[in-house]
Amino acid sequence: MSHNLALLPPDEKQKIELDKQASYAVWQVKNALADKSILAEQTRAIHDENERSHFVDCIDKYSKMMGL
To answer: What's the mean pLDDT in 11-33?
Structure first.
């Protein structure tokens, strides 16, 4: 079964984008390509409270997955 992500509502697309950004940020820290402060910087850059909360949850999820 395939899913066309372009057909999702904008808020769901944004959640997927935030998840990708969190995954990449944690990967950068794990591989010493960025300092851990990047996680806080990116979190502060998100102004919507719900989106920020989702981003932090994703950072926690990927930090555990990647052993950070």
So the answer is: 96
Q: What percent of the chain has pLDDT over 70?
A: 99
Establish if 19 belongs to a structural domain: yes
Nearest 5°: phi and psi at 28?
-60, -45
What's the structural domain count of the chain?
Answer: 1
Integer-rounded Cα Rg, in Å, for the chain is: 13
pTM: 0.88
pLDDT at 63: 96
The rounded distance, in Å, linking the Cα atoms of 16 and 32 is 24
Torsion angle of alpha carbons 31, 36, 38, 42, nearest 10°?
A: 110
Is residue 4 assigned to a domain?
Answer: no
